[in-house]
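Our platform keeps sequence and structure together, in a single record for each protein. Such a record has a labelled line for the sequence and another for the backbone structure tokens. Nothing more is needed to write down the fold, since each code stands for a local backbone conformation. For reference, a complete record is included directly beneath this paragraph:
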Amino acid sequence: MDIRTTRAHALAAPEAPTVYYDGGCPVCSREIAVYRREPGGDTIRWVDITRCQSDELGEDLTREAALARLHLRHGNGQLVSGAAAFTGLWRQLPRWRWLGVLFGSGWRLAALECAYRAFLRLRRAWRRG
């Protein structure tokens, strides 16, 4: 493979998925710690919104939005949040992939989003700072 082919391949390769999470929420931090220890967790970029620089968020994600709910930026740049972010994250982790597939679309994704929104209301009381 010559240098042009190598360079073209590198340009076409997708980025690692990025998870944006609220490190100020003790429940959120514990859950993220579980995912990080899982096989495949080292292939994901983890960004604690409470400690990151604004340029780490990208142009389409504000700090306020990122703190409000879990976000995942897929390797192709697509940004999703809430239940879609969880199912996308689970699909990246071999032991959790089945859950991501099971809840990743249709009425199950809608039900998971409703449950996540209910959690977000409770989360306000748990969040530090």
User: Anything to note?
Assistant: Helices lie at 3-12, 26-37, 63-68, 83-92, 97-103, 106-126. Confidence is low (pLDDT under 50) at residues 1-11. The CA atoms of residues 82 and 117 lie 8 Å apart.
